[in-house]
Design goal:
The structure is a single chain. By secondary structure, the protein is an alpha/beta fold. It has 2 domains: 149 residues, 3-Layer(aba) Sandwich (Rossmann fold); 199 residues, Dihydrodipicolinate Reductase, domain 2, CATH 3.30.360. Helices cover 32% and strands 24% of the residues. It has 11 helices and 17 strands. The protein has a 9-stranded mixed sheet with strand order 16-15-14-13-7-12-11-8-17. Strands 3-2-1-4-5-6 form a 6-stranded parallel sheet, with helices on both faces. Strand 5, helix 7 and strand 6 form a beta-alpha-beta unit. Helix 8 crosses helix 9. The termini are far apart. The N terminus is likely disordered.
Length: 389
């Protein structure tokens, strides 16, 4: 197996708020019967190959704008997926162009906060790929701005949508594992090669990879109260397609301990130097990326939490573990924008919650602070939990 994850390999293998605000924004939209949600996509690189089919599959959504600072990519995606949208070179011209209702942000992560703020100021709802901002303070300011303008903003990932997440959550709540003690999440590969932003300041393995495990573990076990972490740069130089040889500025190796309520401790490890013969293929039953341990039993998620394939449940001393919840149930990691877009039209509330995304963003920021200082860092943010009731 090659020791690098190419853009083509990535595309191939990843193919397999307050209540008052909610009522005013969602019910108001639902009253406009027969009206599709007009969506603008900014960022027409690799990830848009996953998002556009999802958005175009919806009977409630119309993609009206495509935008990329590399303009030829917007034009290419418009032709490739037969979108029939207007194309733009930057967000400012897009906001002045054909009217739309929600922006989907798929750009380099370092500019998510800036772009999301411009969209909100212009009166647009926002779905943002992770992270929704570069700092917790910036993300919280975006949420406050959205509330002030009676708009909605959400942030990836959408891991709480999977049937496996629901099964694991209910199993924990029903006490089938007894008293939960510990949990582990892992996600890593040898690093993307198609863009430098993964390795530049504001990038790193935590906002790109660890974010999934952080969202899953906090979603299952509840908000984290404190963080201790160690991060490092194992490979100080990388060669990438868009800039050649670069200096790595963001962590490419991270281990994060999360303290939850009731004495529960979870651990996340993620990095860009992890050889894994599975690659991005999550189907092998020997790959258990999420593990939850109690004194009555344990659960192990088959595959990655962004592409779930089943759960192994072990509650017996003398019987083998049982495969539960084996079907994907239609869940795909790239479905978030479609799901929240349809929720706006239908006047419903999705499981995906912006406070959860903000909590994960605070964990990432706290992990970097903990690694730099050697200290345990307390967290302030919370989110509605349990996610699945």
């Amino acid at each position: 197996m090659r020791d690098k994850i190419s853009r083509e390999h990535f595309l191939k293998t990843t193919a397999m708020a307050g209540a008052a605000l909610l009522v005013s924004s969602l019910e108001g939209w639902a009253a406009a019967t027969g009206k599709k949600l007009r969506v603008a996509v900014i960022g027409c690189g690799s990830v848009s190959n996953r998002y556009l089919p999802q958005l175009l599959s919806s009977q409630l959504i119309e993609v009206v704008s495509l935008c990329d600072i590399k303009y030829e990519r917007a034009v290419a995606q418009n032709n490739e997926y037969k979108v029939k949208a207007q194309t733009y070179r930057n967000i400012d011209t897009m906001l002045k162009g054909v009217p739309f209702d929600m922006m989907v942000t798929l750009t380099d992560m370092q500019v998510h906060g800036e772009l999301n703020r411009k969209a909100l100021l212009a009166g647009k709802h926002v779905w943002s790929e992770k992270p929704m901002a570069n700092t917790y303070a910036e993300g919280k300011a975006l949420l406050d701005l959205a509330k002030s303008k009676k708009l909605r903003i959400w942030g990836a990932p959408a891991v709480v949508n999977s049937p496996q997440f629901a099964f694991m959550s209910r199993t924990i709540q029903e006490g089938k594992l007894g008293r939960i003690a510990a949990a582990h999440g892992q996600y890593g590969h040898t690093g993307p090669t198609w863009s430098a932003f993964f390795y530049e300041k504001g990038g790193g393995s935590m906002p790109d990879l660890g974010v999934y495990n952080m969202a899953t573990l906090t979603g299952l076990l509840g908000p984290a109260r404190a963080v201790m972490a160690m991060t490092s740069i194992v490979n100080p130089e990388r060669t990438v397609d868009d800039k050649g040889k670069i200096k790595v500025e963001a962590e490419d190796n991270a281990h994060i301990l999360l303290e939850h309520d009731k004495g529960v401790i979870s651990h996340v490890m993620c990095g860009f130097n992890y050889f894994d013969p599975h690659g991005h293929e999550a189907g092998n039953q020997s790959l258990h990326s999420i593990q939850i341990y109690g004194d009555y039993g344990n659960m192990r998620l088959i595959g990655y939490d962004w592409e779930t394939n089943g759960v192994m449940l072990d509650t017996s001393w003398d019987k083998p573990a049982v495969l539960m919840s084996a079907e994907k149930g239609g869940y795909e990691w790239q479905e978030g924008a479609r799901v929240v877009g349809e929720s706006i039209v239908n006047g419903t509330e999705p499981l995906i919650n912006v406070e959860h995304a903000l909590h994960v963003l605070e964990i990432i920021e706290a992990a970097r602070k903990s690694s730099a200082t050697g200290m345990k860092v307390k967290l302030e943010s919370k989110f509605p939990w349990p996610v699945v009731k």
